[in-house]
Amino acid sequence: MIMKALDFLNKAGIYYLATTEGDQARVRPLGFVMEFNEKLAFCTSNQKKMFKQLNNNPKVEICCIDQKFSTLRITGKAVFATSKETQTKALEIMPDLSKMYSVGDGKFEIFYIDEAIAKCYSMSGKKVDIEI
Known about the structure:
- By secondary structure, the protein is an alpha+beta fold.
- The chain is about 20% helix and about 45% strand.
- The protein has helices at about 1-10, 50-55, 85-95; strands at about 15-20, 25-30, 35, 40-45, 60-65, 70-80, 110-120, 125-130.
- Strand 5 and strand 6 form a beta hairpin.
- The model has no long low-confidence stretch (mean pLDDT about 95).
C-alpha cells in the first residue's frame, strides 16, 4: 500500500530524486512528499533544472535509507498534476513551503510518480515488502 512507502519516506525525512539531463544522471535531495490520488506526489519549481529534466525524460528513481539502514528505491514516471487543489494540499501538509511558493504563483509545480515500483532491502540485502 502507498501508505507504507509514504511512511518510510516521511520517517527518512530526506530522500534523493534522480533524473537525467541528456546522458548525465542528476541527483538532488527532497524533503516533501504527500499522497495524491493514491500516488506519491512531490513538488518543485518550474524555474529549476529538475522541472526541465522531468519534462524531457519523466523516468525517475527515488532512494532513501531509514534509521535501521533499510533502503527504499522507487522507480516510475513523473506526471505533473499541478492544480489549485494539489498546491493547497501541499501547503497544508508542509506550511514552510509557503516561504517559497503560493497557490497559483506560476512557479509551484506538483508531480506524482506513475507506474511506481518500490523495492526495499534491509542492510543484509534481504528484501523487505513495501507495496505501492
